[in-house]
Design brief:
alpha+beta, Arc Repressor Mutant, subunit A, 2 domains, four-stranded antiparallel beta sheet, two-stranded antiparallel ribbon, 8 helices, 8 strands, 41% helix, elongated
Length: 238
């Protein structure tokens, strides 16, 4: 049995994707994806902002990670204060007397962070759409970063591929290939523009601009609006 996300949207701290030293880079794409997966097990109307009721075994099935890796990632999320556990103050409490991880035991987790200066609205229906298309953790991290960068009047992202790669902690060539893949699937529209260099010289440089399909209900509209231009630009993105 597979579980659905219990919310349409979740809001995360925009500072998690601010620079190469931000939280996303510290916890990594798998821990971040595991955090989002917890929202398939979120309980409603609790005293704390987010309360999750699940087990390591259920998280293993949802993510495809090994039991030991799920525990390792959960402990990393606690170490960076993304979540906390109810009643698991010591790591050894996750193991039985034979040293095996208790993957069937119910674990209550919670997150109390609710108010930040800036946040990123993440459409969990779009995250599920990415997963259904086979677009895994790295694409979800890129989606969240582009969602943050698009929080302006024009709804465009201007950051260079190199800087995005430094935040996501992956090679710039991989980011380029991911941008190409999202364009090919009509989830992103990217094109190159020429801009003057900031040093006042007459020379110009090229940069990408991106429009992200950030809402699940926008997919058909996005395709109708940008498909022709995306098809023209695909060869320029390789």
């Amino acid at each position: 049995m597979k579980f659905n996300f219990t919310l349409d949207y979740v809001y995360i701290n925009a500072d998690w994707f601010s620079d190469k030293n931000s939280l996303f880079g510290k916890i990594g794409e798998k821990a971040f994806f595991l955090y989002l997966t917890l929202f398939k097990f979120r309980l409603h109307k609790q005293d704390k902002y987010h309360v999750f009721l699940t087990s390591i075994g259920l998280l293993r099935k949802e993510t495809g990670y090994k039991t030991s890796e799920v525990l390792e990632l959960l402990l990393k999320l606690r170490r960076y204060r993304v979540i906390n556990f109810e009643g698991y103050s010591r790591t050894e409490y996750f193991y039985d007397e034979k040293g095996n991880i208790k993957d069937k035991d119910v674990i209550i987790m919670f997150s109390e962070d609710a108010e930040w200066e800036y946040n990123i609205p993440v459409d969990l229906r779009m995250i599920q759409h990415y997963l259904d298309l086979g677009l895994k953790e790295r694409y979800i991290g890129l989606y969240c970063l582009l969602r943050k960068l698009s929080n302006n009047i024009e709804r465009k992202a201007y950051m260079s591929i190199e800087k995005m790669a430094s935040i996501l902690k992956i090679d710039k060539d991989i980011v380029n290939s991911m941008v190409y893949e999202l364009n090919k699937r009509y989830l992103l529209y990217s094109w190159k523009v020429k801009v003057k260099k900031s040093n006042g010289e007459k020379s110009v440089k090229e940069r990408f601009e991106h429009v992200l399909c950030y809402k699940y209900e926008m997919i058909d509209q996005f395709v109708d609006e940008f498909k022709d231009e995306i098809d023209k630009n695909l060869s320029k993105l390789k």
